[in-house]
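We examine the record.

___
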Amino acid sequence: MHTHTGEKPFACERCEYKSSQLANLQIHTRTHTGEKPFACDTCEYRCASSGNLKKHMRTHTGEKPFTCDTCEYRCRTSSHLKSHIRTHTGEKLFTCDSCEYRCRTSSRLKSHMRTHTGEKLFTCDTCEYRCRSSSHLKAHMRTHTGEKPFTCDTCEYRCRSSSHLKAHMRTHTGEKPFTCDTCEYRCSRSSHLK
């Protein structure tokens, strides 16, 4: 009934968090205590809720119960599916307060916000490289390992990041998505436009 009334009678004693359900408050309280009572029996993963453990177990089983109605995409979580569906609808719910940037996921917005703050949370263990997102760090780490997991379907080109592959594919398609506001110049890379 609390979900209908909007009432949230269960309040955290340490912060302003309130919930309509006691179980949610109990899970929230673990963010303060650090308690992680749910453990994976396959690896060392531990978490604060049974729901998170259930999601984690799919990394071992390979189960992907969430499917897209439009394409063959399958995933492990409903949040990933919601985010994927926006690739079909073009919907960009998350907006930056400082500029006109819009995106489909909260994690992308968080990463984008660091372009304004200059914050670089992710650091390389091997060198002094620092960056704003885990995906950039992953790509950077491949400069040390030499790994090039992204391959072109048309030629023998291999690279370290999906963005590099996307840019390379334009050499085959001839696509020039970057346009100048002042003249008719069009190009395949944002760096060329800059």
User: Anything to note?
Assistant: The mean pLDDT is 90. The chain has three domains: 2-61, 66-119, 128-194. The helical segments are 2-5, 22-33, 50-61, 78-89, 106-117, 134-145, 162-173, 190-193. The chain is about 40% helix and 15% strand.
